[in-house]
Specification:
Blueprint: E1 24-26, H1 28-40, E2 49-55, E3 66-73, H2 79-96, E4 97-99
Parallel strand pairs: 1-4
Antiparallel strand pairs: 2-3
Helix pairs in contact: 1-2
């Protein structure tokens, strides 16, 4: 069922999975690469890079095993700009991918 008020928008994934995405297990490098591509898709963030993600000691109650906090290289982009991109992607990414 389509929900116009839903906060989870899997269309952002494009050819990375779409509606059929389940929580995939990715290497640290793959996760960083995908997060970087997602952030860079936002205007003004073309040079922002994700530098690191932090593995949780124990998965949370929903099975997520990495922190929502990312280490970024903002490449001179103002926090007001890259924080909007971060906010737009982190929920969907966190619900979709896990670290190997």
């Amino acid at each position: 069922m389509d929900d116009d008020d839903a906060t989870l928008n899997r269309a952002i994934f494009g050819d990375m999975g779409g509606e059929d995405v389940k929580r995939q297990t990715l290497s640290r490098e793959e996760l960083i690469e995908r997060l970087t591509k997602m952030i860079q898709s936002y205007e003004g963030c073309e040079n922002v890079r994700v530098v690191n993600v932090t593995r949780l000691d124990f998965p949370d109650k929903d099975g997520r095993n990495w922190s929502r906090s990312l280490v970024l290289d903002p490449a001179g982009v103002a926090p007001e700009v890259y924080s909007l991109a971060y906010g737009a992607i982190i929920g969907t990414a966190h619900d979709t991918w896990n670290l190997k």
